[in-house]
Amino acid sequence: MRMHVTASGLKWFISTTTGAAIITSAGCGGGGSSAGQSAVKKGEAAAARVVITPASGTAGVRPDAPVVVRATGGRLADVVLDSGGRRISGEYNRDHTRWQSRWTLQPGSTVNVRASAENANGLVSTAQSSFATEKVTGNTFTASQDEVLESRRGDTYGVGLPIILNFDKPVHDRAAVERSLQVIAEKPVLGSWHWFDDKQVVYRAKSYWPAYQTVKLIAHLGGVKGGKDLYGGKDLVRTYRIGGSHISYLDIANHHMRVEHDGKVVRRVPISAGMGGSTEYTTTSGIHMNMEKDEDVTMTSPGRGPGDPGYYSELIHYAVRVSSAGEYLHQTPGDEGCLGVSNCSHGCIRQPAADAIWYYKQSQPGDPVDITGTDRQVEPDNGWSYYQMSWAKWLKGSALHHH
């Protein structure tokens, strides 16, 4: 075997038995780190050239600046980008001569890029670049998961699960932030984000999630520019296990609830809802979601104190919350005479003791509860009632799909 070193510093080795060449290099030029070409045997194609931008040794790179890798005289075979300990994926063009990072870089971190390309004869060229991103101090924002979802981490969720993110500072570049949010489902379906204000964004499927799968959120927020001099401080990753399809259909006018598991009716329950007469005592119709549950909840009349007309304070058992306005499905307190006959509650859904215990045990956060029969509709942002909004209107709340 013999070794040849070109004037550019490129080393190549020619096997005395096969004539194949393996070419490696490291150097800078043209604004990026590159692997150059070398002299080759007659009849062989020149080695591919790989150029990485930013170049090795560059400091103060903006976290939202793309990393670009180009190949001439061949096709890119592999690109590995590591930013502050996290792998950043990217996308190739059609002929694999250009690669660009998909996500932003971690601020104040060292970024390492390794790339390789092959020419027509299979000769491999490689290049490396190591550079530093600028630090962001003071003007950073972070995301947190909805408090109810966070408290239920590790649970199995229903097919109506929403993904809710809250930001600690107002986000002005919603499109940049929304582009950084990746939802990966084992059984993918059409879905979209919707901004309710500049500090909250929610993801839901067009219809419900398919049952029995895992859904993962990767919020690639580190380095995302959320506004003038405002960058995301760190990523957020959450995983959700979707269980069976548990959907409850409540007919308030006929005082009846039907529960379906995976499309089959498994229980019919006599119920009693809000007595009406005022908005306060009218159960809301529309698509609700089970949110949280507690074996014991003390329910009191809103805005009233002891001695005020209409004041009540009751200890309720096996309560499953379906709205932020205080609506629950729960065990009836005391007399079951009105169940299946009339509406006598203050707005919640009462059930017989045995049925309430059963419903409590099998309920999952994100189980849909479809209520009909009253003249009061639940608001889409009342609890997790996001499916109450039409899909067309939901898309208008996206910074990327508002058309």
TrEMBL record:
Protein name: Ig-like domain-containing protein
Signal peptide as annotated in the record: 1-20
One Pfam family this sequence matches: YkuD
InterPro entries given in the database record: Big_10, LD-transpeptidase, LD_TPept_cat_dom, Transpep_catalytic_dom
Domain L,D-TPase catalytic: 246-372
Active-site residue numbers: 330, 348
Species this chain originates from: Actinoallomurus oryzae
Phylogenetic classification of the source organism: Bacteria, Bacillati, Actinomycetota, Actinomycetes, Streptosporangiales
Alphabetical UniProt keywords: Acyltransferase, Cell shape, Cell wall biogenesis/degradation, Peptidoglycan synthesis, Signal, Transferase
Pathway(s) this gene product operates in, as recorded in its UniProt entry: Cell wall biogenesis; peptidoglycan biosynthesis
